[in-house]
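Data card: per-record layout.
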Amino acid sequence: MLKKFKKILIVLCCLFALTSGIVFADTETNSTYTETDKPLWTIHIEGYTFTYDNAPKQVKEEYKAKCEEMGIAPSPKAEIFIPSDEMQSYGLKNYKGSQDGFDIYFYGTYFKVTGVKNYTVKTSTLVGYNKIESGNPVHLVQILLKACGYSLGVDSQFGNETYTKVRSFQSSNSLSVDGIVGARTWERLAYVAHL
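The structure for this 195-residue chain is written out next.
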């Protein structure tokens, strides 16, 4: 009877361990994460997402100029996110399209983003010139910088504007000013963004 009880207990413990977390994938790095705790904080950002093809003229021109600066051709399907509070800077104060947004969850060693795009980024991810220069990690850097009060485009491309804002953020927060978002910069972005 005792052996049977031990086997049942072992099976229950294994089942608990397997079901206690939610596993999700990061398509950028082909990694998986197990979410077992509640996030340390969450923020929400409202705005409008355009593709390059359907973007208003002012948004399209700014994105095209940024691509030229980086030496790449604009992709017709590239997504450009404009937070609600910046629509007026594009002359779109009374824009009537439907709003969307992002929820950003910080778990200490990684971020989880949900909304129009769903992805995760580890705080060990390096973003910057000669590191990751496009995609979801850059998108997250740009959104976090916006949450920290910096004005910049959110287009998932690491160009001069993003580089300059990262360096400014690093300088203002007593970090090494190298324009590379690594663990210490991610952690400080997380701290300042949720204040």
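Known properties of this structure: The chain has a mean pLDDT of 83. The radius of gyration is 20 Å.

See the next section for split statistics.
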